[in-house]
Every structure is written in C-alpha cells, then in structure tokens.
Write a structure and sequence with these properties.
Blueprint: E1 9-11, H1 13-19, H2 22-33, E2 46-50, E3 53-60, E4 67-76, E5 85-92, E6 98-103, H3 104-123, E7 130-134, H4 138-150, E8 155-159, H5 163-177, E9 181-183, H6 187-191, E10 196-199, E11 220-223, H7 236-241, E12 244-247, H8 250-256, H9 258-265, E13 274-276, H10 277-281, H11 286-291, E14 295-298, H12 303-319, E15 324-325
Parallel strand pairs: 1-6, 7-8, 7-10, 8-9, 10-11, 11-14, 12-13, 12-14
Antiparallel strand pairs: 1-15, 2-3, 3-4, 4-5, 5-6
Helix pairs in contact: 2-3, 2-12, 3-4, 3-12
Amino acid sequence: MSASFPAPVFVSAKTVAAVFCWDEAIHALQAVYAQPIATTATPPRTIARDKKAWLRTLTAVPPGTRYFGAKVMGVALDAEAAGVEYVIVLFDRQTSRIAAFVDGNMVTAYRTAATSAAALDRLARAGSARLAVLGSGLEARMHTRAFAAVRPLSEVVVFSPTATRRETFARDLGAELQLPCRAAGNAREAVEGSTIVLAAARSRGELPILDGDSLKDGMTVVSIGSTVPEQREIDVSVAERADFIVCDVMDEVLGESGDMLAAAQAGVDIRGKAFSLNALMSGKLDRERDEARLPMFKSVGSGLQDVVIAELVLTKAVAAGLATPLPIAFETKMAT
C-alpha cells in the first residue's frame, strides 16, 4: 500500500514578490550561515555548454531546514526569442518528495541583496548610515532596500554612467524609502563621505568603477558585480586596501571573480585576508572583524541562498493560499 503525498506546487514570480519580507530573509540567512555547513552540502555550481546553449545548476542541502534542492537556469542564444528562465526545485525532507517549483528570477535578486545585507549587518560599524551606490539596475535597487532593513540610512548617493537612470533611481528610491537620495556625477563624488559603499554595476568595457584612492578607513564595501573571470567591477587597489574580505563562496570568489583574479595576479595576498561568510556568522571572526579598518564583502551567489529564500517564500505562499497546486504526480523509486 503506497502512501499519499501532496502534489507539488508552483510559486510564481508575482507570488514571490507578494510574500517576500527583507527582515525575514536576512534573519533566515544569518541563522543558516551561523551553523556548521559541510562542503558536501554546497557543491560548486556546474555549467554545461554546447555552442550557443548553456545550462547552469546550483545545488544545496542547507542545515536545519525543511527543504533542499537546486536552481536551474538555461538559455539557447540562437533561439528565435532567447531568454533566460530560472526554476528552483525544492525537495521536502519530511516526505523525500518534490514539493515545489519556484520561479527563480526574483528569488535570485532577493537572495543576493539579502545575503549582502546579512553580511553588512555584521561588518558595518555602528552609526554607518550614508550609502554610496554604484549602479542603478535591479541589483542596486534591491541592495538599497535590503541595506535599509539593517541600517537606519541617513542618505543615499547614487552614480551610474547614464544620467537619466541615476536620476530616476534617486527619485524612486528616495520616495519609496522616505530618505534623502541624490545622484552624483561620478563614482568618487558618490563615495566621498559615505560609510557604506555598494558596487553593483560592472562598468562599460569591464573597466573597474571603484578605486581604492576614494576609500577611507571605517567604510564598509560590498561588491557583487564581478562573478566570472571576464567581469570587472572594482580596481585592484580596492582589494589591496581592504584588510578583511568576507566571501560568500570562498573558492568561487577567489578563483572565478575577475576582480579577485586581477588582484592576485598583481601580487595582492587575497587569500591571506579572505574569510568565509559562514565563519563570520558563526562568531569565529569577531576579533578580526573588530580590528578591521576597511572590511569588504564579496559575493558571487550560491545555491544555499537560493534554497533558503525559496523555502521562505514557499512556506508563506502556501500559508496565504497563493501557491498553485500542479495536476501532476511523479513516479517514485524507493530509496534503499
């Protein structure tokens, strides 16, 4: 006699946005990263390629959570209407069955910003309130919202290469967050006088948009725009100035981010001052953090973050009656 299990559900991007909460997401990530995490629970991402088609997978079994799973994204660049779609597949530990398919597009933006905010909450000195934002796209907007959830921001100053985009960003985010927000004419102007610096835009031509000369002790830098070897966002001098670098995925940040590869090639001892987000959240680095003059968080994203946030939105979507039951059933092969 076979047991009966609930059918899988689908959580749309619209539903993700409707139920998402910054405080809950940030706290959920901090709680997971504070626990011991086996390397086997968060294996490296994989990318399959063939000519103009690629498929990327990020898998994770987070400690202490109900769900585990994978984010899968792919694109065929020679398709008639090429576009990237993301799906997060969640398995239920309690039933060992597929529980949900979550649209991963908004989850990706939310989890990146929430992870940065979780790190910032541990890194930034008390009183850090003036935020410089380099970039005006989705990630820049999400990070500004997330940072406002962990620090009482006094002002936001934004720079991006296109004047209309940075002016629109300043107008929209200022009104949304109810705080002073203005556009700057260049990156140095935006950074001057700030205590938190967000680099969330790869520059045109992959030339670094942030340099170390504009930074001062007491600032906290967050960099999220360079995730593969070909991408550049911050100058080598930034990596040189930073004396405490926290990485969400150590091997990928140090071995695959163009910014860190360039710094290592220039002779900067990145590995000597790089630490994991797991170690920061678990309290193992409190002394080093307190002694840091210019801490930096460098992120490339991970499946762990995807699964933690997908679980959060799935749970809330089901409770609110917003998850869509699917008229499907998988054939189950029993584990031995």
